[in-house]
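Technical note accompanying the year-one report. For the benefit of new consortium partners, we illustrate the data format agreed upon in the data management plan: each record pairs a sequence with a structure-token string. No post-processing was applied to the example shown here.
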Amino acid sequence: MLAKVWFILKYWFCWILFFEVARLGFILTNLNEVENAGLRTSLLSLWYGIRMDMSTAAYITLPVALAVLISVFLKPFRNAIIYKVYTAIVLFLVLLILVADIGLFKAWGSRIDATPLKYLSNPKEAWASVNHLPVFSILIVFLLVYLLLVLWSNKLILKWVPVLKVSQKKWLNFILILLLTGLFIIPIRGGFQLAPLNQSSVYFSKNNFANLAALNAPWNFLQSISQNSDYTINPFRFDDDAKVKVVTDSLLEKKGSSAQLIDLGKGAPLNVILIVWESLTSKAVGLQMEGKMITPGMNELKNQGIYFSDIYATGDRTDKGIVGVLSGYPSQATTSVIKEPGKAAKLPMLSKIFAKRGYNTTFHYGGELEFANMKAYLLQGAFNQFTTINDFDKKDQNSKWGAHDGVVAAQLKKDINNSPRPFFSTWLTLSSHEPYEIPSAPILKGKNDIALFLSSIHYTDSIVYSFIQFAKQQSWWNNTLVVIVADHGHRLPRSIHKPDDFKIPLLMLGGAVKSPTIISTIGSQTDLAATLLGQLNLPSNEFIWSRNLLDSSRSPWAFFTFNNGFGFIQPNKKLVFDNVGKLSIDKIGNISDEDIYRGRAIQQAAFQDYLNK
């Protein structure tokens, strides 16, 4: 009488076991993280994550339970083929998510969610981001594992399915199966507690990797998709808006006075060249490996200008970084303002400021601007000219992203020399983006990601340095300011503390710089706009989230976001906060409750500002 019930339960148990093994596989593919978290703590995720495994397994088992329920009266539903085909389809999709999750975690440091889907509208660029991996080998392994799992599941189903042919006591069987199907609501919602299962339900440790390992990848992915991406309510609201405003107003206070380090006495408006360097992390600047300097050019240049040594990127993607640089606007943890042209159109932009003052504004990028919806944002920036992948010959498009930095730099030199004065030219580099393809021999040996990434940084460093040497020989150099800043940092080379992944260099140099100096105050990438405009005696009041780094009276701090979390940097204090578990996952210095409040206040206010656009 209970044979059909046991069929359903065994099917459910097998999926739970499968997800536990998958979690173990995730742990084993991240041994560096395990070393930091501790083996015992990492393995505890198997226990704490089982609730989410049970929930996901219950979702998968529900259609099987319904089919078994129908089989009580309808003979076709007693056929093994139904359960074999269904299981094979689900296995394929689940295994695909699990494999993608492992790769994404290595690249981004977060479990798979809906974020990668926004890049699928540009399949060429999405492919370029992953094809440096051994895709063919991964595909072969994926297919072998999938086939083995299908064979194993088919064998079990063929062994179990005969019990469905038993037709005694149909109504009693129907009632029992119906009851069991209804009871699946308990594991689906994670138990009897008031709040249904969510990511924080399986968080158990102060170590973030252990918490992330406890997540079930398919559950996390589908839950992220099911959330409404068009936010109408601030998910980061934790206190009264009026109280939060008091805190953020004090943090964003602008006194208006600052040191003048740029010479404006040349008699004509200064030209500005803005170089936004893909993934230039501070960890690479001054780094030496295998007896070779990774950024010899940057090492020299930073001693020739105004070098800001303690700056943090606002986010971890180019679409967030370009907004942080051009609009002085903070990134959003769970979305990106650039995805919504209507909101992005309301942002101030440096290019607009300069265009209004008669500057010739240009934007150079070797790839496709459509990626991550950057084109819609930049088209509203009053740029007179765009140079993109379509402007280069096929022979020069020797990167899967587009033209290499050397090719783009050569075009930039020509365009600037032919440009009316004054000019505001922005160059977004790309060669140091995955898959780290460069036209020259890598400076470091090996094919591992760290060697490839740092070699690509070294290549772009040589191109940027060569460009600066060219610029120094031009008649316009003495009346020009060059700004070099990263679009975001990078996880490589690996560091113990997450804030290091967001720390980036910011350098102002050129003939207009009075004298070289190092500014060690803490600041954000978003502060570049107000700092630059302040040095040029141009108004920056539109850039409400940007503060002048040279204002000695400003409060030194920086704020950044990552996948549903934020970092808050203050003198001798660094806080990284996870929004899911509502806990600090990285703390340096004496972090108080007030520090956490201030960081959460910035996040709440910044996201509310995004919603109000």
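Partners are asked to follow this layout when depositing records. The chain is about 45% helix and 10% strand.
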